[in-house]
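Example 3.2
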Amino acid sequence: MRKLLLLPLALALIAVMAPAAHAAKTHIVQVIGNSFQPQEIWIDEGDSVKWVFRGPGVQRVSKGLTPPQPCRPTAGPDSGLKRPGQTFTLKWPEVDEISVYHSTVRGKCNMWGRIHLND
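Structure, written as tokens:
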């Protein structure tokens, strides 16, 4: 009988001590003119990053190398050309621990940003 009384107490203690589950979030990055807003963001495992293209004109988001060469493309995700009002979303783990992204239109890299993975 004593064991049956201790079982709920033990389960309650485990529930209190267990780490809270992370609710995945979607982080928004605005692509406006020649800038990403914000330029750097911090995410947790399971989160997503959504780029919202505001214009003017077309833009694209591609994965790049870490600075000092953030505009050098890598074999990673690419949004393709997007017009104002369109979006592009990546979910972790497609977003690396430190992921650099850039926008290239007509062969010219005109901006870059960085995604950090929280500890």
